Every structure is written in C-alpha cells, then in structure tokens.
Amino acid sequence: MNQAAPLTEQDILAMPDEDYMSTQQLTFFEQLLRQQRKQIQLHIEHIKQNLSSVAVEPDELDRALIEEDNRQNLRLVEREYFLLRKIEQALDRIARQEYGFCLETGQPIGLKRLLARPTAELCLEAKERQEIREKHYKKQRG
C-alpha cells in the first residue's frame, strides 16, 4: 500500500483558503504539536537528570555556580511545563475541531501565525488588543 508523504509547511500554505482547518491541516498541526510535546518532555527529563546528578563541590565558588545553574534550569523547566499545558490545550482544541480559530473573535488565526506559534489561541488583532490592555494595566499598577 502506498502511503502519501507527510505534508510540509509549504504544502499547508499552498492549500486554498477553503481548506482552512481541513482534516489534512488539523492532522498536520496535531503531528507538529505532538512532536513538540515529545521534544519538550525529553528536554525536561534531561534537565531533571542533570539536576539530580550534580556532585557536591567543596569549593564555595563552585557551589554558588552550581546553585545558579540549577536556578536557571528550574526556571527553564517551569517555562517548558507552561508550554506543555499550552500544547495540551491546543491538542484538545484539535480534538474538538476548534483549533485555528480565535478564542476571542472566532475568526481564523491564520496558517502563518499557527506555523510560527502552533499554540496560538488568538488572532493577531486580538493578541495586539490583549497586549495593549496588559501594558495599560501595568502602567496603572505602576
């Protein structure tokens, strides 16, 4: 049986507008998100192994460097766990066939934006409004 080659980003971008979030496109983004999830999980596991295998150094400077390195790695792991949650939410939206549409406006997010950020929940205009609100709120709290 002859299986078709997996779609590429160029294939997705070349599709007509009527095919927006077709089964083929949803499958492409699902595979992309699952691949990203796997890479992040492997990276988190690698960092955890490094954190647990740190040798205790007698030198205070070495200990300080190791502790700072550990803090940075823990911040990275925290960010990656946040991204994993976003990936799971995107996969849930794919399962419900709601992926690719702005949560605020219901308008298409756009293929280019989704290829750049597969976990995007908002179209560009809604994201810009959100950032303006956040910036305004920060100024008020000041």
Describe this structure in words.
The chain has 142 residues and is mainly alpha-helical. It has a single domain (9-141), classed as Four Helix Bundle (Hemerythrin (Met), subunit A). The chain has five helices and no strands. The longest helix is centred in the middle third of the chain and has 36 residues, at 60-95. It is flat. The mean pLDDT is 90.
From the spread of the alpha carbons, the general shape counts as flat
- Percent strand: under 5%
CATH topology name:
Four Helix Bundle (Hemerythrin (Met), subunit A)
Query: How can the largest sheet be summarized?
Result: none
The end-to-end span amounts to: 64 Å
Unreliable residue runs: none
Rg for CA atoms: 20 Å
Class inferred from helices and paired strands = mainly alpha
CATH class type: Mainly Alpha
